[in-house]
Design goal:
single chain; 121 residues; mainly alpha; 65% helix
Length: 121
């Protein structure tokens, strides 16, 4: 299980690299901004639903975020060009990102199944 403080640091890094504020993330989650701050500082645990939503927003796989062995710089697939995006736009992009992340996961499973059927590793 990943430490809350490390998870919080990773969440902050992804949010900042996406160009989003704690307030924008909080609005998408329908929570107070102070809760996002507490997630990022490791003061509070985050629910799996909240974590999945944040990962969808920043287009980053939750399983990779939670990987204890993950020591490289986190590089998310999307960066928002303006802090003036409406919450509705961020939520719409989040839905698109979820489709993209699910497709990545299915592609990985397909590759693994092909490797097993051909005897490759």
């Amino acid at each position: 299980m990943i430490d809350k403080i490390i998870l919080g640091q990773r969440l902050r890094e992804l949010r900042e690299s996406s160009g989003l504020s704690q307030k924008q993330i909080a609005e998408c989650l329908s929570v107070d901004q102070s809760l996002i701050s507490k997630f990022e500082s490791g003061e509070r645990s985050i629910s799996s639903t909240q974590l999945d939503t944040i990962c969808d927003i920043v287009c980053f796989p939750a399983d990779k975020l939670l990987d204890e062995k993950q020591d490289e710089k986190l590089d998310n697939a999307v960066s928002f060009r303006t802090a003036k995006l409406s919450i509705e736009s961020i939520k719409a992009l989040s839905a698109i990102n979820r489709i993209f992340l699910n497709q990545m996961k299915m592609d990985k499973w397909g590759d693994a199944a092909n490797d097993r059927s051909t005897g490759m590793k």
